[in-house]
Design goal:
Blueprint lengths: L3 H18 L7 E2 L9 E2 L4 E5 L6 H11 L5 E5 L15 E3 L2 H11 L5 E3 L6 E3 L5 H8 L2
Parallel strand pairs: 3-4
Antiparallel strand pairs: 1-2, 4-5, 6-7
Length: about 140
């Protein structure tokens, strides 16, 4: 049985992930609690959000695959010990089938153009302005 505090932790995680996704897709929002389907609406993806102590990635990915055929589906996992602030979301885990993500990775950016940002250390594309550094500058 899931305790109320675990349920609240899961709901808070959905809200923070939706806020994070809304930076790219302004219409991103968490689904109403208890509804079936994607946990985050308003994006082109089927997103399952997990904030559990039990780690069952294969079960989660199979569940996503069964539910949604038309859109890329994946799991965002918040492990115990990770915070629930917008800044903490970058450290949540992204889990999906390798076969689903490889076409996107292969066609997106040549591997030699992926480099570490000298300012903040995150991965970025060579020659592009680092989005993380831009956010940090705008928050000062």
């Amino acid at each position: 049985m899931v305790t109320n505090s675990r349920r609240l932790r899961g709901r808070r995680t959905e809200i923070v992930v939706a806020d994070y996704m809304a930076k790219r897709w302004g219409s991103a929002r968490p689904v109403n609690s208890g509804a079936s389907g994607s946990d985050i609406l308003g994006t082109p993806y089927f997103i399952e959000v997990k904030a559990r102590s039990l780690f069952s990635p294969l079960e989660w990915v199979k569940s996503v695959k069964k539910r949604e055929k038309a859109r890329l589906g994946f799991v965002i996992y918040r492990a115990n010990g990770q915070g629930d602030s917008l800044e903490a979301v970058d450290d949540y885990l992204f889990i999906c089938r390798l076969g689903d993500i490889m076409p996107l990775l292969e066609n997106r950016v040549p591997s030699e153009a992926i480099v570490r940002c000298k300012g903040c250390g995150t991965w970025t594309q060579e020659g592009r302005i680092c989005e993380v550094c831009e956010v940090i500058k705008s928050n000062k």
